[in-house]
Design brief:
Layout (H helix, E strand, L loop, with lengths): L1 H6 L13 E6 L4 H17 L4 E6 H5 L1 H5 L6 E3 L7 H5 L9 E3 L12 E2 L6 E5 L1 E2 L10 H5 L3 E2 L2 H13 L4 E5 L20 H8 L7 E4 L9 H9 L6 E7 L3 H7 L5 H14 L4 E8 L6 H13 L4 E6 L17 H24 L5 E11 L2 E6 L4 E5 L8 E5 L1
Helix pairs in contact: 7-8, 9-11
C-alpha cells in the first residue's frame, strides 16, 4: 500500500510526523489489536485533526461498521479494496461520514503479491494468502478469505528483481504457507505445490538466504525437510505452529494433526539437521484446558528438542465455535500459564544458543543501529549483537559465537 501511494505522488512520513493521510493496517487475532486501533486513531486526532484516516486489515474486514463509528475514521477498506487505496482517497473529503468499502469475503479470490521494503536486510515476500482451515478459535478465514497463491513463475521473477535490488535474505510468508499452490493466479493451468516452489527458488543466483516463515506440521512434508537439509540457500530454521501439546485440546481446536505427528516432524528435522532452530506457536487457556491438559503441554514442550516459543493467551473472538466450549479458563489462569511457557521459551533459547558457543557461523548483519550496536542472525537464527560497523551492513560475516 505504501508503494501504491508513493507511485501516486505521496511522500512517506514517520508515524509520529504530521501527515495528510494515515493508514492503519489492523490485525484481529487478539483483543488488544482492536483497542490499539482506537488508541492510534485518538493519537492522530490530537496530532493532525485535518488528516484523513484509513483503516484496513483483518479488523476492518470483520467489523467495518464498528470501525466506521470511531470518531476520526474516514475510510474503511476491506480485503479486496485495500489495494485500490489511491482511488478511494481521491473520492473522500474530511468531515464526511466514514466511507466503507468492504466486500463479501466469499468474493475475494485474487492474489496480490507484496513484500516489505525498509532498511532491513531480510525481505518478507508474501506468496500465499487466505486459509481453508476451520480452527475453532480463528477468525482468519472470515477476514482473509479462501486459500490462494501466486504462481511459481511470478514468485521467481519477483525474487530475481529483489536480488537485483541487493536483497540478501527473503522470508517466504503466507497465511497458510504450506498450502501454497491453491487458487489459480497468473494464468496457472494446474495447482502447484510449496515443495515445487522451494526447489525453483533454490536455483536463483543472487539471493543467499531463504527462510520459511511458518508452516503447519501436517503440511511440512518429509520431502521439504530433506530438501532444506541439503540446500545451500534455505536456512536450517523452521517455525511450526503446535497450539497445544494435548490431543484432547488439539481436537477441540480442530487442528489437523496430533502431537505424535508433531514430535515426529521435530525428530526428523533434528536427525537431519541437529543445528536447526525450531520455533513453536502455542496457545494458553483455551476453553476446556484443565491443569492436567496444560501440564501435558508443558511436559511435551519441555521434552521436545525445540529452540523457542511464541506464546499466545487465548482470547475470545466473535463468530468462532470455540465460544461454545466449556469450561472457560479464567483470564488470570490463562496469563499464569502464558508466563510459565514464556519462561520455558527463554530457557530453551539459552540452551540452544549454548550448544553453539565457540562455533563459527555465518551472520547476516542488518543496517539498523541501536545505541552504537548492530544486530544480525546466524543461519540457524541465533541473534548476534556487535559494535556498529557500516561496512558490515547487509553483508554475511563469519562469526564466532
Amino acid at each position: 500500500m505504501g508503494r501504491l501511494l508513493e507511485n501516486d505522488g505521496f511522500i512517506k512520513k514517520d508515524f509520529d510526523e504530521v501527515a495528510d493521510v494515515y493508514v492503519i493496517n489492523t490485525c484481529s487475532v487478539t483483543e488488544n489489536a482492536d483497542k490499539e486501533c482506537r488508541q492510534l486513531v485518538r493519537r492522530i486526532q490530537r496530532k493532525a485533526p485535518e488528516a484523513l484516516v484509513v483503516i484496513t486489515g483483518c479488523y476492518a474486514q470483520l467489523k467495518p461498521q464498528e470501525i466506521a463509528s470511531i470518531p476520526g475514521v474516514d475510510l474503511v477498506l476491506g480485503a479486496a479494496e485495500k489495494f485500490n487505496i489511491t482511488q478511494h482517497l481521491k473520492e473522500i473529503t474530511k468531515g464526511d461520514s466514514a466511507k466503507i468499502c468492504s466486500c463479501d469475503i466469499e468474493e475475494v479470490n485474487s492474489f496480490v503479491p507484496t513484500h516489505s521494503v525498509n532498511d532491513r536486510t531480510r525481505i518478507f515476500l508474501k506468496v500465499q494468502d487466505g486459509c481453508d482451515y476451520n480452527c475453532s478459535f480463528c477468525t482468519i478465514p472470515m477476514a482473509r478469505g479462501k486459500s490462494r497463491s501466486d504462481s511459481i513463475d511470478n514468485v521467481v521473477s519477483n525474487v530475481q528483481a529483489l536480488a537485483e535490488q541487493g536483497a540478501k535474505e527473503i522470508v517466504l510468508t503466507g497465511i497458510n504457507l504450506g498450502d501454497f499452490g491453491k487458487g489459480l493466479h497468473g494464468g496457472k493451468k494446474k495447482e502447484e505445490t510449496f515443495y515445487e516452489l522451494v526447489q525453483e527458488l533454490d536455483k536463483i543466483e543472487g539471493i543467499e538466504r531463504f527462510r520459511i516463515s511458518s508452516i503447519e506440521p501436517n503440511l511440512l512434508s518429509n520431502d521439504i525437510i530433506e530438501f532444506v537439509s541439503n540446500s545451500r540457500r534455505f536456512m536450517p530454521h523452521f517455525h511450526i505452529p503446535l497450539q497445544s501439546g494435548s490431543n484432547k485440546i488439539l481436537g477441540l481446536m480442530r487442528r489437523r494433526y496430533k502431537k505424535e505427528l508433531y514430535a515426529e516432524r521435530v525428530g526428523l528435522i533434528k536427525t537431519m539437521m541437529p543445528h536447526c532452530c525450531i520455533g513453536v506457536d502455542v496457545i494458553t487457556g483455551f476453553p476446556g484446558e484443565t491443569d492436567a491438559d496444560f501440564d501435558e503441554t508443558f511436559q511435551f514442550l519441555h521434552q521436545l528438542d525445540i529452540s523457542y516459543l511464541h506464546v499466545f493467551t487465548y482470547s475470545e473472538r466473535a463468530n468462532t465455535t470455540a465460544l461454545d466450549i466449556e469450561p472457560v479458563v479464567p483470564m488470570q489462569k490463562r496469563q499464569e500459564r502464558n508466563k510459565i511457557l514464556r519462561n520455558l521459551s527463554y530457557q530453551k533459547m539459552q540452551y540452544f544458543t549454548s550448544l553453539h558457543t565457540g562455533q563459527v557461523r555465518k551472520v547476516l548483519f542488518e543496517a539498523n543501529s541501536k545505541n552504537g550496536m548492530m544486530e544480525g542472525y546466524t543461519d540457524n537464527y541465533i541473534k548476534i549483537t556487535a559494535p556498529h560497523n557500516q561496512l558490515w551492513a547487509n553483508t554475511i560475516r563469519e562469526w564466532k559465537i
